[in-house]
Amino acid sequence: MKARYKRMMFIVLGLVAVTAIAALILNALQSNINHFFSPTEVVANEAPKDRTFRLGGLVEVDSVKREDDGLTVHFNVTDNAEVVTVKYTGILPDLFSEGQGVVAQGKLGAGGIFEAEEVLAKHDETYMPPEVADALEKAEAEAAAQGAAQ
Question: Which region holds residue 18: left if phi is over 0, alpha if psi is between -120 and 50, else beta?
Answer without folding.
Answer: alpha
